[in-house]
Amino acid sequence: MLSLIVFLPIIAGLIILAVPASQKQIIRIVSLLAAIAQGVIAVLIWRHYDPTMAGIIASPGGSPVGSFQLIERIPWISLNLGSFGPMTIEYFIGVDGISITMVLLTALISIIGVLSSWTIQKQVKGYFILFNLLSTAMMGCFVALDFFLFYVFWEIMLLPMYFLIGIWGGPNREYAAIKFFLYTLFGSVFMLLVMIGLYFSVVDPVTGHHTFSLVAMASQENYLKGAILGPDSTMWRTIAFIVLFIGFAIKVPMFPFHTWLPDAHVEAPTPISVILAGVLLKLGTYGMMRINFPLFPEVYHAGLYVIGVFGAINIIYGAFCALAQQDLKKMVAYSSISHMGYVLLGLAAANSEGMLGALYQMFNHGTITAMLFLLVGVIYDRAHTRAIDKFGGLASYMPVYAGLVTVAWFASLGLPGLSGFISEAFVFVGAFTSTTTRPIAMVSVLGIVFGAAYLLWSLQRMFLGKRRPDAAYDLEKDAEGHEHIHFHDWNGKLDLDARELTMLVPLAVIVIALGIYPMPIMGMLTASINKLVTVLAPVAISAVN
Amino acid sequence: MFEMPSGAEIQSIISTLRAGADYFIPELYLSALFMVLIILDLVLGGRKNRILASATIIGLLGTLFFIFKQHAMPDAELFFGMYALDRFGIFFKYFFVLTGVLAVVISAEDEHLNSQEAGMGEYYALIVAMVVGMMMMASSTDLLMMFLSMELVALSAYVLTGYLKREPRSSEAALKYLVYGAVSSGMLLYGFSLIYGLTAQTNISKISMELSQHGYDPLVMILATLLVMAGLGYKIGAVPFHFWSPDVYEGAPTPITAYLSVGSKAAGFALLMRFFFVAVPHAADGIEDMLSIDWLTILMIISAASMIYGNVVAIWQKNVKRLLAYSSIAHAGYLLLGIITMDKVGTQAVLLYLASYLLMNIGAFYVVVVIANKTGSENLEDYRGLGRKMPLAGAALTVFLISLVGLPPTFGFIGKLMIFTALIGKGDLFMWLALIGILTSVISLYYYMLIPLNMFLRDSDRNLDKDYRTGMLSNAITVVLMVLTIYFGLFFQPVAEYARYSASMFGAVLN
């Protein structure tokens, strides 16, 4: 079942390959069907998921695949490397609380992404083939339990993303696309070296051979003494942790590796921004939780303070940058950086509350930011500009739009009753509980204030008051004297149309529902988070060494 | 002085040659093919280019049968220690035949080349001659035989490079190739003669024995190694012996560029591995040996310099062939990484990397030819907007280039993975080289992506209304090469196993 959810989009992509390029509607519908099927499977998986099974790690003497669920494990490559022993690579996938959250998010955002791509007119065939390839790669990353498989999916993501930004993007798309590509590749080539190093340092307790299995790598007793990343090789373990962390931090993106993100967002078409902010960024923090921290727990512990500080920098720096933006999309991009800072802060807290908040924030950030970018896209489609001070008074003329913007904006700033509040609250509870991160948390709280500032200020400038004299829209009076909004070069519905509502309303419902009753998601991840915290605890680490 | 051998001696010589010939059938068969092609060219009239190409392809594929039969034969040294039959050599025989076949396929596709009035008779015959030469380079176990086979390859290559007789660029390339080649042959020969002076032997196994039993003057040995390295460095196109390659690659007919960049380079690597692993095996004993450090250090510096120089300079190239020339310098650097490890896994990695390089590099050049047939140009500028006109060519080229960068799920990634696995398996000794390797591969992404960038992201300012459709056969070849590049990137077990099986060389002990 898990394989199906991963490979459905690529099957759709192959079908599209056979469809003539002129049949745009068929191509779109095939993609949509694949995404919906993915969504249905995701819901089925979610229904059948047993939240009491924690995953994360295989307990000694227990099942070699741990308490992961929906496991599929097939030998893929087996090579004799002589003195290095056989090299085995497996097609090994499965889910636990951390990954299932992300699987749900990916399935949801994929559907939204396809719907949002409906307006793409240029080279529709190529667009949807790449889109589906990207979709498979993202899903694959979240379920892979073999490092090699994870790496393959991780890298496959880059090329479609490059073309999606580069061909369907804005005026400066060439620069943005190659910058994205180079930054992420720079991070991931180090991952390759660490992966090989880990392979030589870890032995599968069942077969006695070296392995790429992330489950085996998560147990410190499987590491060989004297190996390059073995328990006694402090220097190389530290270096490996740092380069791996940088690789994932580029994806998050963490200051100072964030500069590709605003460029990519500004140039990318709306659906790609939605995918980028909704799913891709989470791969960074997911990678930290799945690979970086459990594999090098002692280095993680030594680095908690640094991770926390970078989290705080992200929160505050991102908020400041957002405050300074004139371009609405760039503001949302920086707010995205700021909100991913909360995830880092939660991860630095190293306790259940913080981690839980971090993971929940990853899900919420996905839904909220997807909404934000869709809403930016709505106004950009109509007015062909995203300059914040080219509007004013929109609330009177586009009430439905303004209503949804308000939900998204308030969810983003963390208003109680909306989902963003709960995750941020958990992050802060966790960060205040941990003595390491307490001072950092105190500073980070300022981020909420600045966050409120840029969000409310933009809301006020765009939606409240009267039409500005240089606004990007005109007002027309009808016979009865009512004022109506009018955009140049826009013949569609002035307020949100049916397609836009289909994308936005479900997201708004999720944001509100999970703000009132977070258990559908949170209940699923608690066991895994608790297990992760125990695995990462200093006691557990010293017990092994 | 020279004495007439007695009748008995002559008898024994003849019987040794006769016995050796049984192990030499693929080479003999190809020599016959060479002559058949020349005769065919003379006999046939009119439109014979297609027939000649088909005959060459069928003839070359026929060799595979004879090579396959060699698997059953035991490893042996033939012709008084001149030549060896071993799995390592057999791997390269397959490799060169396939390279030759693909080179002929590209040549048959190249309209520019086929429009030559001179005809293509000698052209295909020379390609076959080069295959023989390269096979012999990979299997020679004697300094003289090594030199002879290298010259056979070089002489054929000079002519092929200058085959576009009407084009000054092609003639210039051939002349440059010849001049550089002559100098480096001289250096190689000087190095060989110094080694002969030290050991009074020309067979590489005997040289190794002599060196370890009677000692040697380290200074002379280092000088000899350096000179040999210079000669071989020219063949594999590594820094600082690369100066010929951008000009030659740009000027030569594109199929020959592809052929040289894969075949000739691989032959150089085969010879280099055999020479260093067999003749100078001391490095395997450990680091204490002064000599071993020296040539290993030299190889390390050459490797690092090639990766950095090739990848950095490629950034500024405006011509696709030239860009691929610099990239091939960088790939020589990556391949050297596998040799530096001096073990079986490293050798296996090199062989696997070469196999991937064969597929992706030939693939890239094939698409370059297909595009040049339509546009008449190999300039990056002229690739603008072609992605929409030639989507298959664009997609295939992107796959080949991604494979050259070394990204999954392509064969090129597996090559890099194995090379780095071999390096890191040695512990932290070569970590700095691995770092240079991966960082330069990030740089390489930038310039490789310039090609898809021009094809897909930019629009042409020229009129692109003419017919850009390509033939069914050409499309099929493109698809096959592209699918294989991805297929072997996901299911590389058989190739990797065969590479391991082949990492066994007569007279060399690899751990």
Task: Give the topology, please.
The complex is a heterodimer of chains A (545) and B (511).
Chain A: H1 2-18, H2 24-48, E1 69-80, E2 86-95, H3 97-116, H4 124-143, H5 147-156, H6 158-168, H7 173-201, H8 214-217, H9 234-251, H10 260-267, H11 270-295, H12 297-302, H13 304-324, H14 328-349, H15 352-383, H16 394-397, H17 399-413, H18 419-433, H19 438-463, E3 474-477, E4 483-486, H20 498-516, H21 519-536, H22 538-544
Antiparallel strand pairs in A: 1-2, 3-4
Helix pairs in contact in A: 1-2, 1-4, 2-3, 2-4, 3-4, 3-11, 3-15, 3-20, 3-21, 4-5, 4-6, 5-7, 6-7, 7-9, 7-10, 9-11, 10-14, 11-14, 11-15, 13-14, 13-19, 14-15, 14-18, 14-19, 15-17, 15-18, 15-20, 15-21, 17-19, 17-20, 18-19, 18-20
Chain B: H1 7-21, H2 25-43, H3 49-69, E1 76-78, E2 83-85, H4 87-109, H5 111-114, H6 121-139, H7 143-161, H8 168-199, H9 204-214, H10 218-236, H11 244-251, H12 254-279, H13 290-313, H14 320-340, H15 344-375, H16 386-389, H17 391-405, H18 411-425, H19 431-457, H20 472-490, H21 493-502
Antiparallel strand pairs in B: 1-2
